[in-house]
Amino acid sequence: MKQGSGTRRTGLIVTAAASVLLLAGCSTPAATSGGSDEAAAGIDKLNIIVPADPGGGWDQTGRAIEKDLQANDLVTSASVVNVGGAGGTNGLAAMKTEKDINTLMVMGYVMVGAVETNSAANRIEDTTPIARLTDEPLVVVVPADSPYDTIGDLLDDIGETGQAVSITGGSAGGADHILAGMMLKEQGIGADKLNYIPYSGGGESLAALLGNKVNAGISGVGEYAEQVKAGKLRALAVSGSDAAPQLPDTETLTEQGIDVVLTNWRGVVAPGSIDAAQAKILTTLMEDLHATDTWQTTLTDNNWADAFMIGDEFADFLTEDIATVKVTLKDIGLL
Question: What is the annotated signal peptide range for this record (predicted)?
Protein backbone atom coordinates (compact mmCIF):
# COMPACT_ATOMS: atom_id res chain seq x y z
CA MET A 1 0.00 0.00 0.00
CA LYS A 2 1.45 3.33 -1.01
CA GLN A 3 1.88 6.05 1.55
CA GLY A 4 -1.25 8.12 1.86
CA SER A 5 -3.47 5.61 0.09
CA GLY A 6 -6.64 4.14 1.53
CA THR A 7 -8.44 0.86 1.24
CA ARG A 8 -10.71 0.78 -1.78
CA ARG A 9 -13.68 -1.29 -2.79
CA THR A 10 -15.48 -0.79 -6.10
CA GLY A 11 -18.75 1.00 -5.35
CA LEU A 12 -17.77 1.56 -1.71
CA ILE A 13 -14.60 3.29 -0.56
CA VAL A 14 -13.36 2.29 2.87
CA THR A 15 -10.23 3.92 4.23
CA ALA A 16 -8.93 1.49 6.81
CA ALA A 17 -8.25 3.95 9.53
CA ALA A 18 -9.50 6.21 12.21
CA SER A 19 -9.09 9.93 12.22
CA VAL A 20 -7.50 12.23 14.70
CA LEU A 21 -6.76 15.89 15.12
CA LEU A 22 -3.39 16.76 16.58
CA LEU A 23 -4.09 18.23 19.98
CA ALA A 24 -1.26 20.15 21.59
CA GLY A 25 -1.56 20.70 25.34
CA CYS A 26 0.77 23.53 26.10
CA SER A 27 0.98 23.05 29.86
CA THR A 28 2.92 19.78 29.79
CA PRO A 29 6.61 20.16 30.58
CA ALA A 30 9.29 19.08 28.15
CA ALA A 31 10.96 15.70 28.55
CA THR A 32 13.44 15.63 31.37
CA SER A 33 17.03 14.63 30.97
CA GLY A 34 17.90 11.03 31.74
CA GLY A 35 21.64 11.53 32.16
CA SER A 36 24.60 10.48 30.04
CA ASP A 37 23.05 7.16 29.09
CA GLU A 38 19.92 8.79 27.74
CA ALA A 39 19.10 8.01 24.11
CA ALA A 40 19.54 10.61 21.40
CA ALA A 41 15.79 11.26 21.21
CA GLY A 42 15.83 12.42 24.81
CA ILE A 43 13.87 9.43 26.08
CA ASP A 44 15.18 7.34 28.93
CA LYS A 45 12.27 4.93 29.46
CA LEU A 46 9.47 4.59 26.92
CA ASN A 47 6.09 3.22 27.96
CA ILE A 48 4.16 1.34 25.26
CA ILE A 49 0.46 0.71 25.86
CA VAL A 50 -1.02 -2.19 23.89
CA PRO A 51 -4.81 -1.81 24.13
CA ALA A 52 -5.47 -5.54 23.70
CA ASP A 53 -4.67 -8.85 25.32
CA PRO A 54 -1.44 -10.66 24.37
CA GLY A 55 -1.29 -12.60 21.12
CA GLY A 56 -2.92 -10.31 18.58
CA GLY A 57 -1.63 -7.91 15.96
CA TRP A 58 -1.44 -4.89 18.25
CA ASP A 59 0.54 -6.90 20.77
CA GLN A 60 2.91 -8.13 18.08
CA THR A 61 3.39 -4.57 16.88
CA GLY A 62 4.01 -3.16 20.34
CA ARG A 63 6.56 -5.80 21.22
CA ALA A 64 8.33 -5.36 17.88
CA ILE A 65 8.61 -1.62 18.57
CA GLU A 66 9.93 -2.33 22.06
CA LYS A 67 12.54 -4.78 20.79
CA ASP A 68 13.78 -2.76 17.83
CA LEU A 69 14.01 0.55 19.70
CA GLN A 70 16.22 -1.06 22.33
CA ALA A 71 18.25 -3.04 19.79
CA ASN A 72 19.19 0.22 18.08
CA ASP A 73 19.75 2.17 21.32
CA LEU A 74 17.04 4.64 20.33
CA VAL A 75 15.75 4.58 23.90
CA THR A 76 17.49 3.45 27.05
CA SER A 77 14.65 1.07 27.87
CA ALA A 78 11.08 0.33 26.79
CA SER A 79 8.28 -1.73 28.27
CA VAL A 80 4.88 -2.96 27.08
CA VAL A 81 1.71 -2.93 29.17
CA ASN A 82 -1.41 -4.72 27.90
CA VAL A 83 -4.76 -3.04 28.64
CA GLY A 84 -7.25 -5.25 26.83
CA GLY A 85 -10.95 -5.09 26.15
CA ALA A 86 -13.66 -3.16 24.31
CA GLY A 87 -11.87 -2.92 20.97
CA GLY A 88 -9.03 -0.92 22.42
CA THR A 89 -11.21 1.67 24.12
CA ASN A 90 -10.11 0.48 27.56
CA GLY A 91 -6.56 1.28 26.49
CA LEU A 92 -7.77 4.59 25.13
CA ALA A 93 -9.21 5.41 28.56
CA ALA A 94 -5.88 4.48 30.15
CA MET A 95 -4.11 6.81 27.73
CA LYS A 96 -6.45 9.64 28.74
CA THR A 97 -5.15 9.51 32.32
CA GLU A 98 -1.51 8.77 31.45
CA LYS A 99 0.83 11.31 33.07
CA ASP A 100 4.11 10.10 31.57
CA ILE A 101 4.84 12.09 28.42
CA ASN A 102 7.17 9.34 27.16
CA THR A 103 4.24 7.10 26.26
CA LEU A 104 3.03 5.63 22.99
CA MET A 105 -0.10 3.57 22.41
CA VAL A 106 -0.45 1.11 19.56
CA MET A 107 -3.75 1.57 17.74
CA GLY A 108 -5.33 1.35 14.34
CA TYR A 109 -8.41 0.66 12.29
CA VAL A 110 -9.93 -1.66 14.88
CA MET A 111 -10.04 1.11 17.45
CA VAL A 112 -11.80 3.49 15.08
CA GLY A 113 -14.83 1.30 14.67
CA ALA A 114 -14.83 0.29 18.34
CA VAL A 115 -14.98 3.91 19.47
CA GLU A 116 -18.11 4.37 17.37
CA THR A 117 -19.88 1.09 18.10
CA ASN A 118 -19.14 1.33 21.84
CA SER A 119 -20.06 5.03 21.98
CA ALA A 120 -16.81 5.43 23.88
CA ALA A 121 -16.42 8.45 26.13
CA ASN A 122 -12.73 8.67 25.26
CA ARG A 123 -12.01 9.21 21.59
CA ILE A 124 -9.02 9.00 19.31
CA GLU A 125 -9.35 12.73 18.73
CA ASP A 126 -8.20 13.16 22.33
CA THR A 127 -4.76 11.71 21.53
CA THR A 128 -1.74 13.06 19.65
CA PRO A 129 -1.11 11.19 16.37
CA ILE A 130 2.52 10.17 15.93
CA ALA A 131 2.92 7.64 13.10
CA ARG A 132 1.16 5.13 10.94
CA LEU A 133 3.44 2.11 10.62
CA THR A 134 2.01 -0.90 8.79
CA ASP A 135 -0.95 -2.40 7.05
CA GLU A 136 -1.98 -5.90 6.03
CA PRO A 137 -4.89 -7.74 4.42
CA LEU A 138 -7.26 -9.90 6.40
CA VAL A 139 -7.94 -13.58 5.85
CA VAL A 140 -11.16 -15.57 6.23
CA VAL A 141 -10.51 -19.04 7.65
CA VAL A 142 -12.41 -22.11 8.80
CA PRO A 143 -11.33 -25.14 10.83
CA ALA A 144 -9.56 -27.79 8.78
CA ASP A 145 -12.53 -30.17 8.93
CA SER A 146 -15.10 -27.52 8.00
CA PRO A 147 -17.67 -28.35 5.32
CA TYR A 148 -17.00 -24.96 3.68
CA ASP A 149 -14.55 -25.32 0.82
CA THR A 150 -14.94 -21.80 -0.58
CA ILE A 151 -15.92 -18.35 0.62
CA GLY A 152 -19.05 -18.76 -1.48
CA ASP A 153 -20.03 -21.87 0.50
CA LEU A 154 -19.72 -19.94 3.76
CA LEU A 155 -21.71 -16.93 2.59
CA ASP A 156 -24.39 -19.07 0.96
CA ASP A 157 -24.94 -20.90 4.23
CA ILE A 158 -25.19 -17.62 6.14
CA GLY A 159 -27.76 -16.44 3.60
CA GLU A 160 -29.79 -19.61 4.17
CA THR A 161 -29.40 -20.19 7.90
CA GLY A 162 -28.47 -16.76 9.24
CA GLN A 163 -27.11 -16.64 12.76
CA ALA A 164 -26.76 -20.41 12.95
CA VAL A 165 -23.36 -19.71 11.34
CA SER A 166 -20.88 -17.96 13.64
CA ILE A 167 -17.84 -15.89 12.65
CA THR A 168 -15.21 -14.87 15.16
CA GLY A 169 -12.64 -12.12 14.98
CA GLY A 170 -11.35 -9.07 16.78
CA SER A 171 -13.37 -6.61 18.78
CA ALA A 172 -16.80 -5.41 17.70
CA GLY A 173 -16.69 -2.70 15.06
CA GLY A 174 -13.12 -3.42 14.02
CA ALA A 175 -11.69 -4.45 10.68
CA ASP A 176 -12.67 -8.11 11.06
CA HIS A 177 -16.27 -7.23 11.95
CA ILE A 178 -16.53 -4.68 9.15
CA LEU A 179 -15.17 -7.14 6.59
CA ALA A 180 -17.80 -9.69 7.63
CA GLY A 181 -20.52 -7.08 7.20
CA MET A 182 -19.16 -5.92 3.86
CA MET A 183 -19.07 -9.46 2.48
CA LEU A 184 -22.69 -10.05 3.47
CA LYS A 185 -23.80 -6.71 2.04
CA GLU A 186 -22.00 -7.40 -1.24
CA GLN A 187 -23.87 -10.71 -1.51
CA GLY A 188 -27.23 -9.14 -0.71
CA ILE A 189 -27.44 -10.75 2.74
CA GLY A 190 -29.01 -8.68 5.51
CA ALA A 191 -26.86 -7.48 8.39
CA ASP A 192 -29.31 -9.11 10.80
CA LYS A 193 -28.06 -12.52 9.67
CA LEU A 194 -24.51 -11.90 10.89
CA ASN A 195 -23.55 -13.76 14.07
CA TYR A 196 -20.21 -12.17 14.91
CA ILE A 197 -18.39 -13.26 18.08
CA PRO A 198 -15.70 -10.73 19.05
CA TYR A 199 -12.53 -11.35 21.05
CA SER A 200 -10.05 -8.75 22.22
CA GLY A 201 -6.99 -10.95 21.59
CA GLY A 202 -5.99 -13.03 18.57
CA GLY A 203 -5.17 -16.00 20.78
CA GLU A 204 -8.78 -16.30 21.96
CA SER A 205 -10.28 -16.28 18.49
CA LEU A 206 -7.73 -18.87 17.37
CA ALA A 207 -8.62 -21.12 20.30
CA ALA A 208 -12.31 -20.84 19.42
CA LEU A 209 -11.57 -21.87 15.83
CA LEU A 210 -9.29 -24.76 16.74
CA GLY A 211 -11.85 -25.94 19.29
CA ASN A 212 -14.64 -25.84 16.67
CA LYS A 213 -16.63 -23.43 18.84
CA VAL A 214 -17.21 -21.16 15.82
CA ASN A 215 -17.69 -21.83 12.12
CA ALA A 216 -15.26 -19.28 10.68
CA GLY A 217 -12.82 -16.58 11.65
CA ILE A 218 -11.43 -13.32 10.29
CA SER A 219 -8.12 -11.75 11.28
CA GLY A 220 -4.94 -10.30 9.90
CA VAL A 221 -3.12 -12.74 7.66
CA GLY A 222 -0.15 -12.82 10.01
CA GLU A 223 -2.23 -14.05 12.93
CA TYR A 224 -3.63 -17.15 11.18
CA ALA A 225 -1.01 -17.93 8.52
CA GLU A 226 1.02 -20.44 10.54
CA GLN A 227 -2.08 -22.42 11.52
CA VAL A 228 -3.13 -22.48 7.88
CA LYS A 229 0.30 -23.72 6.82
CA ALA A 230 0.18 -26.37 9.56
CA GLY A 231 -3.13 -27.67 8.19
CA LYS A 232 -5.15 -26.77 11.28
CA LEU A 233 -7.11 -24.03 9.52
CA ARG A 234 -8.21 -23.61 5.91
CA ALA A 235 -7.97 -20.18 4.30
CA LEU A 236 -10.95 -19.29 2.12
CA ALA A 237 -9.98 -15.80 0.95
CA VAL A 238 -7.78 -12.80 1.64
CA SER A 239 -9.13 -9.25 1.59
CA GLY A 240 -6.35 -7.36 -0.19
CA SER A 241 -6.23 -6.35 -3.81
CA ASP A 242 -3.49 -8.93 -4.39
CA ALA A 243 -2.54 -12.30 -2.94
CA ALA A 244 -0.85 -12.21 0.46
CA PRO A 245 2.82 -13.31 0.45
CA GLN A 246 2.25 -15.58 3.49
CA LEU A 247 -0.63 -17.39 1.75
CA PRO A 248 0.18 -17.15 -1.97
CA ASP A 249 -2.26 -19.91 -2.93
CA THR A 250 -5.26 -18.24 -1.31
CA GLU A 251 -7.37 -16.22 -3.73
CA THR A 252 -8.61 -12.73 -2.95
CA LEU A 253 -12.29 -12.01 -2.43
CA THR A 254 -12.42 -10.16 -5.74
CA GLU A 255 -10.91 -13.13 -7.57
CA GLN A 256 -13.81 -15.17 -6.20
CA GLY A 257 -16.45 -12.73 -7.38
CA ILE A 258 -16.94 -10.79 -4.13
CA ASP A 259 -16.24 -7.14 -4.86
CA VAL A 260 -14.68 -6.21 -1.51
CA VAL A 261 -11.14 -5.03 -0.71
CA LEU A 262 -10.10 -4.03 2.81
CA THR A 263 -6.74 -3.81 4.53
CA ASN A 264 -5.95 -3.11 8.17
CA TRP A 265 -3.41 -0.57 9.43
CA ARG A 266 -1.60 0.00 12.70
CA GLY A 267 0.15 3.00 14.15
CA VAL A 268 0.97 4.80 17.37
CA VAL A 269 -0.43 7.81 19.20
CA ALA A 270 0.65 9.68 22.32
CA PRO A 271 -1.28 11.34 25.15
CA GLY A 272 -3.27 14.34 23.97
CA SER A 273 -1.86 16.45 26.79
CA ILE A 274 1.72 16.58 25.48
CA ASP A 275 3.12 19.74 23.96
CA ALA A 276 4.40 20.22 20.42
CA ALA A 277 8.03 19.75 21.46
CA GLN A 278 7.32 16.35 23.01
CA ALA A 279 5.22 15.34 20.00
CA LYS A 280 8.23 16.15 17.81
CA ILE A 281 10.50 14.01 20.01
CA LEU A 282 8.17 11.01 19.68
CA THR A 283 7.66 11.55 15.95
CA THR A 284 11.43 11.72 15.42
CA LEU A 285 11.80 8.54 17.44
CA MET A 286 9.46 6.73 15.06
CA GLU A 287 11.27 8.19 12.06
CA ASP A 288 14.55 6.91 13.46
CA LEU A 289 13.03 3.47 14.09
CA HIS A 290 11.62 3.32 10.57
CA ALA A 291 15.06 4.10 9.12
CA THR A 292 16.78 1.16 10.84
CA ASP A 293 17.63 -2.09 9.09
CA THR A 294 16.21 -3.86 12.13
CA TRP A 295 12.73 -2.43 11.61
CA GLN A 296 12.83 -3.16 7.90
CA THR A 297 13.70 -6.75 8.74
CA THR A 298 10.82 -6.84 11.22
CA LEU A 299 8.45 -5.71 8.48
CA THR A 300 9.72 -8.43 6.16
CA ASP A 301 9.68 -11.16 8.80
CA ASN A 302 6.08 -10.37 9.77
CA ASN A 303 4.91 -9.76 6.21
CA TRP A 304 3.76 -6.27 7.22
CA ALA A 305 3.45 -3.73 4.42
CA ASP A 306 5.35 -0.52 5.11
CA ALA A 307 2.66 2.18 5.41
CA PHE A 308 4.78 4.80 7.19
CA MET A 309 3.22 8.22 7.63
CA ILE A 310 3.84 10.92 10.23
CA GLY A 311 2.93 14.39 11.37
CA ASP A 312 0.26 16.48 9.71
CA GLU A 313 -0.17 13.95 6.93
CA PHE A 314 -1.02 11.24 9.44
CA ALA A 315 -3.36 13.58 11.34
CA ASP A 316 -5.19 14.50 8.11
CA PHE A 317 -5.39 10.82 7.13
CA LEU A 318 -7.00 10.02 10.47
CA THR A 319 -9.41 12.95 10.37
CA GLU A 320 -10.72 11.95 6.96
CA ASP A 321 -11.06 8.33 7.91
CA ILE A 322 -13.05 8.81 11.10
CA ALA A 323 -15.80 10.28 8.94
CA THR A 324 -15.47 7.49 6.37
CA VAL A 325 -15.61 4.73 8.96
CA LYS A 326 -18.76 6.20 10.51
CA VAL A 327 -20.50 6.12 7.15
CA THR A 328 -19.29 2.58 6.46
CA LEU A 329 -20.47 1.25 9.83
CA LYS A 330 -23.93 2.66 9.19
CA ASP A 331 -23.96 1.38 5.63
CA ILE A 332 -23.35 -2.23 6.70
CA GLY A 333 -25.65 -2.13 9.71
CA LEU A 334 -23.12 -1.89 12.52
CA LEU A 335 -24.36 1.49 13.81
Answer: 1-30
